[in-house]
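hey m, so remember when u said the tokens were messed up on ur end? i reran from scratch. heres the input so u can diff it against urs
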Amino acid sequence: MHSNSLAAQLFLGTPLPGKLKDCCITELIPSLSPNEWESLKSNCEKRAVATHLELRKPGAEPLWIELLIQKTPRKKDAYLVLFHDCTEHHKLKVTLSQSLTLYKSLVEQIPAGVFRKDLDGCYVYVNEWFCNLRGLEPSEIIGKRPSDFLSAVEPMDPRIEHLLLQGEEDHKYIVKTGQWIVREEEYPEREGKPRWVLSVKTPVYAPDGKIIGSQGLLFDITNTKRVEAAIRKQQAFLSIVLDNLPAVVFAKDLNGRYILTNHAHQAVLGATKEEILGKTGFDFHPPNLARAYQQEEELVIKTGQASVPKEELAFNHTLGEYRWHLTSRIPLKDESGQVCGVLGISFRR
């Protein structure tokens, strides 16, 4: 073996190349087996072959070297071997691999869809959740733009077509402006029921700060939307009941601000629902009456007990006259049992 001083320093710790003259390469690099060495030699007949090997020295941290082997054209059974210390490169590669493994582990296990697109708007990564939402395999999505899924032959649900076109426009906007996009999106399911997701789309930046693509997180909010719909239905039903009661019904928070009013109450105050909510009795009643009502409500809040029905004088703004009402006040309580307001029910005498 003929070598230079750098090779001698690398393997033997001495700059004297003569020390390597009678050494076999597989003895210098124990991680390179004789069979692997023969395989490398046979594969480099026409072109150079490269490989990475671990080099361990007693009492020192292991090194990684890049070995490049090429057959010399003028000498039979002679090979030119170049060695390069690539330990730092190997460490960075391992760190990057571990980071990618951790990233994939996280995005595959979080209960949300994850996708990433390159600058041209083509998908470069999608997780399992996202694939299930689209009903496709990763191989059917990677490398394509949303518009590539538009079918000119088979009819497509208009909602899906809208989402695909919107996805392309969102990507263009994000890479151009660097702005986030957050919106609710509706995906039709096979059973016909909609599936709602909260979509959060952001730019992807390179180390130099340039935008190189976009990415998105999709959170399933279907149950939340169904609960909201049920609450709206209940509220609509409650409004119908309250507005058709032959009684004045109102509610106030702890600061005396109206949070509920029915039609009969609105008629007494001579104002609309929008004009009443958020205001106090002092905005509608004469000061002396408003102060009396306030004292009754503060007592209910303090004791947590309903008041005894009491005759009260009230000014009816619609009729322009004072009238007597029999009024009861009931404490409103939250889930923890704490008083959070007052409900008032009043019948005209």
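this time it looks ok to me. Residues 87-109 form the longest helix (23 residues). if urs says something different then somethings off w ur setup not the seq
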